[in-house]
Amino acid sequence: MKNKFLVLLLALVMVLGAVACSNKKTNENTNTNNTANKEEDVADKVVDENYYNVYTKNYESSIVPLEESYYIYGDVDSAEKYYKDHDYPGNKEYLQEVKDALIDSKAKIQDFIDNMEKEGTSDNDKVNKLNKEMIDDGKKLIEDIDKRLKKLDDISDKDLEKSDAEFRRLVGDHIVLEKEGDHEFRIILRKLDKELNIERKSPEK
Hints:
Blueprint: E1 4-7, H1 10-16, H2 32-45, H3 49-69, E2 70-73, H4 76-85, H5 91-119, H6 125-152, H7 164-175, H8 185-195
């Protein structure tokens, strides 16, 4: 899949800030017996195996695809550096890419929190508390994505005539909200990972 380098998708930064696919529980080069033993060791450390299975299944289907599709840059200068060596699609196309990324993010985050709200019940009180906090913050995150999309709709045809660099900065300005939500979605995900003994590594770019 062709990676899209998009600037200032702050909503995604909240989710994907230094996470990637979870590390494999076992080493593919080990024999069957060692693999089984390692899986048993991991299972013994899991607070709630049923919740673990629900969480990892939905994380893999909703969050990981975002990680694999978008490398998120937190400032305009990073995008400028990228487009020095890559073809710029044009202002209109770039704007649509940003909108599509936000729409895709919203849909996947919505799926994730919907499934976790429906299926994510644990016998562990701490995990249940974190799950509820994650769902509540995810709903606020989605509201902020809608606000960003609405602001992007304010970009006019005249704005499309700006230079590449000017336009990318304009898009970045429109994505920033006047009242930015104090989201902890990513932090809560990391807390859940810790409770479930899940290790993750940073994505390779």
